[in-house]
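To assess whether the prediction recovers the assembly geometry, we first specified each molecular entity separately, as shown.
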Amino acid sequence: MKKSGSSTTIVKKFSALVVDDDLVIQRIHKMYLNRFGFETQVVGNGKEAVDLYRSGAFFHLVLMDMEMPVMDGPKATRELRGMGVNSMIVGVTSQDGDSEKQAFMGAGLDDCYMKPLTADTITSLLQQLNMKYR
Amino acid sequence: MDLVGQLQRQFVDYTTSLTREGFLDDQFKQLQKLQDESNPEFVVEVVSLFFEDSEKLLNDLASAFQQKIVDYKKVDAHVHQFKGSSSSIGAQRVKNVCVAFKTYCEARNFEGCSICLQSLEQEYHLVKSKLETLFKLEQQIMAAGGSVPEL
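The predicted structure of the complete assembly is given in tokenized form:
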């Protein structure tokens, strides 16, 4: 049981995976997640995320970028769901279009946000995780 | 006012002016809030990554426009990446040029794209120089024994 200094009480230590090819976003999202008490790992494309899960890793939360080389967000999300992964997978995109967001959601996301994420979004994700893993 | 006080005042005024002139938006403030004693160099680290990223992207963009036939899909991909990283550190004016640039890419408008590229180089170098000044001010405050004011 861990109590954080912030206003959100963390019931347990959650793990997170940042999947993004942008080093700036990787650094920012890792920082946000660590600040909110997550144990965070970072990979640079969808294939690395899928490979991690295949090797037996598990993460409570996956922040999945949409556009990445090797394997993009939608494909990686479909693969993970196809493997039976029920982690919270949240899409992160810089695309403004609704149609791109809908298509990404259709791949199996729990939600989708514009990047970069904000402290409020991470707080909300944490609350959802607390509910899911109560 | 003592030296630390003067430098702190300068820092606050400078940051305010950067926001007022549209160089930096609220996202930069969010990054500053993330920085703490256990990660005292966070903002400098992230901005340095942005500088490296941007310089590579500007070179790639210049190369793309030197080709006999411009690959607008490639150009759009570079601009998209630039838009993402500039908005993630709060470099608002750079991000705005990227938005316009993407529109010209979609229209395959060579002249519009060329103007945007020049504008992008200009805005990037401006914000780079402003951020470097800001970081120097921070260093001067710390060297004088003070702490960087929270905004």
